[in-house]
Amino acid sequence: MGFRSGGAMLRLLVWAAFLLGCCHGRFVVEKNSLKVTAPDDLKGTYECAIGNFGVPQYGGTMVGFVAYPKANKKACKSFDDFDISYKAKPGSFPTFLLVDRGDCYFTKKAWNAQNAGAAAILVADDKDEPLITMDTPEESGRAEYLENITIPSALITKSFGDRLKKAIDNGDMVNVNLDWREALPHPDERVEYEFWTNSNDECGPKCDSQIDFVKSFKGAAQVLEKKGYTEFTPHYITWYCPEAFILSKQCKSQCINHGRYCAPDPEQDFSKGYDGKDVVVQNLRQVCVFKVAKEHKKPWLWWDYVTDFAIRCPMKEKKYNKECADGVIKSLGLDHKAIDKCIGDPDADEENPVLKAEQDAQIGKGSRGDVTILPTLVINNRQYRGKLDKGAVLKALCAGFRETTEPAVCLSEDIQTNECLENNGGCWQDKAANITACKDTFRGRVCECPVVKGVKFVGDGYTHCEASGSGRCEINNGGCWKETRNGRTYSACTDDGCKCPDGFKGDGKHKCEDIDECKERTACQCKECKCKNTWGSYECGCSGGLLYMKEHDTCISKNGATETGWGFLWVIFFGLVAAGIAGYAVYKYRIRRYMDSEIRAIMAQYMPLDNQGDVQSHSHHIEM
Q1: How many whole angstroms separate alpha carbon 196 and alpha carbon 379?
Q2: What is the DSSP string of 67-127?
Q3: Which spans are transmembrane here (predicted)?
Q4: Distance between CA atoms of 348 and 351, rounded to whole angstroms?
Q5: Is 624 helix (H, G, I), strand (E, B) or coil?
Q6: Which of 539, 431, 513, 511 lies closest to 476 in space, CA to CA?
Q7: What's the pLDDT tens digit per position in 554-564?
Q8: 175-179 and 153-156 strand pairing
Q9: Residue 467 near residue 476, CB atoms below 8 Å
Q10: pTM
């Protein structure tokens, strides 16, 4: 056994040990549903496994019919060689090509089906077993066509595939609906997603696709993160070295912290270039960059760091090191000391809490399953399957929002079709006010009465919506009657609803008619009154030069009114004069009484002394 084959065996043993040590985890096959609508004996919903290539239509559906080729049934060759085409003609259903598993890669089958004009590919398993995930080939020399596969793919069970083939052989048209609407959870207005990646840039096309994705998706990711629409977390896969091999050259070159955290050799050659432990350290540094940036409330800086590091510090230029990384960190204004503290000592014989957390996170929890494919995108705790492409991933993220909470980017023409543009989506609308209940969503549309300028509309959203509450009259007059004539405007809109104003009668919504007060004898009815009806009111005059008093609905003489007015004023004047005289008399009377009382009081002080002297003298005379 040569050195490299021995290293390969060691990697196999290491990986096996990792899986055994994580026995509580499991790999979860991500699925979507396939609904057969015809023929009747096949009607029903079936599960199928989403392929990890192409572009699954997350959040959407696709309708078509199934075709099974008479030649090239495994689709390992170009269908042009057999003069077979599945290109859809105008007005026809798209073709879902059913092929058999075996003899070539799943991706090769998909590529040949796509070139033949198929809208999707269904691969029938060749043995009875649980569904598996169709992945891309691992070899470094794989064809470039992989990045150009755009049709969705699905693996179906052997038994279901046999039933489809039988129906097609019998001449039946098999209509199906591929449904990805529930492939991803969409519980609320924020999407949480993880990207399991690697800093290694020498692992071939797979590494190239990772960094290309990061570069292309960076702008959209940062906007979504800054505005609070998403919560992103990067992760990195490591494994540990079995205890029996810790002192081996292989583990020492691939691992840090005494075999606890390992990565494959970048060039798969231990005799040259960088080692696996270099990759582990750079992975750790990228995790710490994210942690420190997040602590400073700028987690989106991770995208800048990873992009700049890939450009400025590639392995090929021998710059894949700490010095170059520190330069990138400094240029982004991050605290490199805090990042170094987070990294710790890679040579210490102890656990690194950051990498230990990464290993724990790799084990599946809930519906997610273990992360075993690199790179892996996890959206709302479900593993994404499909092409690692900006448009495809953005569609998947948009499918993770609760309907009507999607950001504007999810409603652009490049991502989805605006169903409100055709017949207003079948929803209520007020064309005059340019108001509609149709809300375009990533998954379709909803009919929901809107809120316009703070005014809430209420109704079923399909046939009826009506403004309610204060301010409702500011929006298309609240949907009530309104009319202007000769410079005068009347409206039936009130805060409580539509009610014809005084002088009008009707339903208040569609029509208000003028009330003829003269004809209906509700005003201006006195003997001398002359009534003239006007729009929304009336005019009342009097004959014989009389004056009309509206509050009494009567006519009075203008002269009489004048005389009466002056007489009234004279009465008031004389009344005031009389009141003044009476007041003066009372005043004089009260003064006089006051003066009299004062005089009597003074005189009373002297009168008792005279009387007292007489009494004393008389008494003395008796005693004598």
Answers
A1: 11
A2: E--SS-TT--S-GGGGT---PPPTTSPPEEEEEE--SS-HHHHHHHHHHTT-SEEEEEPSS
A3: 565-587
A4: 8
A5: coil
A6: 431
A7: 888 766 544 44
A8: unpaired
A9: yes
A10: 0.67
From residue 100, how far is each of 23, 182, 527 by CA, in Å?
33, 27, 104
* Rounded-to-10 torsion of CA 260, 264, 269, 272: -70
Residue 566: predicted pLDDT: 53
Pairing mode of beta strands 31-38, 44-50: antiparallel
Burial 562-592 (b: 16+ CB within 10 A, else e): eeeeeeeeeeeeeeeeeeeeeeeeeeeeeee
d(CA 145, CA 143): 5
Determine the residue type at 559. Answer: N
HEC string of 350-378 equals CCCHHHHHHHHHHCCCCCCCCCCCCCEEE
pLDDT of residue 606: 58
Cβ atoms of 293 and 302 within 8 Å: the answer is yes
For position 22, what pLDDT does the model report?
41
Tell me how far CA of residue 396 lies from CA of 34, 277, 386, 392, in angstroms: 18, 34, 10, 6
Show the tokens assigned to 249. 């050259």
Collect the ranges in the chain with pLDDT lower than 50: 1-25, 140-141, 561-565, 609-624
Residue 209: is it exposed, middle or buried by C-beta count within 10 angstroms (0-12/13-18/19+)? middle
What is the pLDDT at residue 607? 55
What pLDDT, on the 0 to 100 scale, is given for residue 213? 93
DSSP 8-state code for residue 239: B
| Residue type, position 539, single letter | E
57 token code pair? 């239509």
Task: Indicate the SS3 state at residue 342.
Answer: helix
